[in-house]
Amino acid sequence: MKSILNVDKLFFKLLFVLIMFFGSVAYGQNAVTLKGSVERVKVHGKHLEGNLAGDSVDRYVSIYLPPGYHTNPKKHYPVVYFLHGFGDDDAKWYGFTRHWINLPAIVDKVISSGGAKEIIIVTPNAYNKFFGCMYSNSTTIGDWEDFVAKDLVAYIDAHYRTIAKPESRGLAGHSMGGYGTMRIGEKHPEIFSGIYLLSPSSLLAGITNLSNPQLLTDSNSNYDDIKKIAPGLRYMYASAAAWSPNPNKPPLYLDMPFGDKQSMVLQKWAANMPLTTIDQYIANLKQLHAIAFDAGSKDTYIAASLNLLDAELNKYNIAHSFEIYDGTHVNRIGERIETKMLKFFSDNLISDKK
Description:
Layout: H1 2-33, E1 37-44, E2 58-65, E3 79-83, H2 90-93, H3 103-112, E4 120-124, E5 137-138, E6 142-143, H4 144-159, E7 169-174, H5 176-185, E8 194-198, H6 223-228, H7 231-243, H8 262-271, H9 274-277, H10 282-287, E9 290-296, H11 300-315, E10 321-325, H12 333-348
Parallel strand pairs: 3-4, 3-7, 7-8, 8-9, 9-10
Antiparallel strand pairs: 1-2, 2-4, 5-6
């Protein structure tokens, strides 16, 4: 009888060990493989209608939904609107096309490790005939600033379980997307409460390399020609389409900083750069709950502009986070999103407590 009891005890001990072991393995796998889902939809851009370039007004938009979105149907989530850079598109950032970054994989990793709260992330496809829209309002390319701040936000709030208030909306972006973040964020504190700029381009004339005389040319006259020229010159054409449109100059409907128009066009471009106009938006910037920006030290022009942005915000006693780190324009962006940006929004956007 005693030996039978001992065998029973041994059996239950072994069973307990096996349950604990496989339970811990399952838990570990869950922690590692916890994944959100990605959807790609089309959103009609009312503010893009009638653009002279003839770009589609129905824009692809990639949406990251956190792991708990489908398993907790009563919960609502904060949203970060993330704007991609020049020459990129949403498909590249969300893993539909092979690229130097995969945003959903980074977010999965951070949420699974407990490094950030669950959040929805939304990225519109801003790739157009000029390789980028500068997230600006223009008769040539459409009113992208209004598309992001109004059309897109309204669509996402209507179709997804968001916390539809500014305290739960953030805006972020890389390069051209960082420019768009500053441009839109400083104008719309009633829509967004936090902004994060990753290596933002074109913040100030004179240190953005836009006025390089080698790039001042008007030799290309159609969209096919733009596909063949160097990226720096493409950026010039995108800037012209956004900031110096000309509805009377087909087929591109823009003025380049060339010949007798050079001075006026460059003045128009300067008027669209956030550090030029920052004094007019101080009241709005003070309404934002959180501001952060960073750039790599080897990203010379952009690092210089961020030092100036830091000084301007300090002048007005506007709280913000700022860092120049050892890096280039792209080589540590994934790391910055993982270790800085997601935590920034997790700490500063209001989440549903359910």
